[in-house]
Amino acid sequence: TEKPGEQGVTRPLYTKSWKQALFALRQRFEKLGMTVEFDQVGNLIATVEGCEKPESIIACGSHIDTVSRGGRFDGQLGIVAAYLAIKNLLTRYGKPKKSLRIICLAEEEGSRFPYVFWGSKNFFGLAKKEDVENICDSEGVPFETAMREAGLNYQTTQPKFANLEAWIELHIEQGPTLYSNHEDLGIITSIAGQHRWDIHLKGVQNHAGTTMMSYRHDAVDCMSHIIAKNLDKAKQAGDPLVLTFGRISVVPNQVNIVPGEVTFSMNCRHTDKA
Questions:
Q1: Consecutive sets of 10 residues in the chain, 274 residues long: mean pLDDT of each?
Q2: Separation CA 221–CA 230 (nearest Å)
Q3: What are the chain's domains?
């Protein structure tokens, strides 16, 4: 984790903890006799070649990055479960007939940079340089700088590892549905798409004690109406639509000043493309 001692796991893309996790996994996989490779953006691919049909590849795995203070099973569960399964299969049955592969995707969360699925999009040749070349993280570090400091670069060749016969990913639910229904396992039937927005509002900064309510142009007041109305609409639309306002930044962010500016995030997800 990037922040030892803090609750949860924080492992954003192209950070020190991200690199440490990848190289620790590499050592584990190589100890099993797997062939370990990296693509240009940092996806890790570990393979046991089949003895009869090596071109037929059964793959499993998940993403290596996390959100800030994420759960200990998010992403890691799919990778560790794949490792333990292959270790057990090799110990009990020896070399497989078909090739077995563990895929550790570089990024899924979008927790450091305003971009998601960088790992899988590159894995299948869908990522576009122009989507990330001008973005920065919350500390102002450019995406390209972080990537190159990690010793990586843009994918310039055709996808090398995407010829899979089958793929399975074990993942923690991260919601209450299975628990509420007393179920241990669920099968995914659809994947939600998402849109993210950063919304910036400008009002008029003023003294909190002497500016009467009727004279105020309070940016936070305006934001609160936007949030409340849109959450009401989301509840009326019903499941599986979800709407989240997870990040708020107020200027000047002081207790005795009417806020003059506010920037907040809006995240909307639904399984229907429309």
A1: 86 96 97 97 98 97 94 94 97 97 96 92 95 95 97 93 94 91 93 91 98 98 98 97 97 97 96 82
A2: 15
A3: 9-181 (3.40.630.10), 193-270 (3.30.70.360)
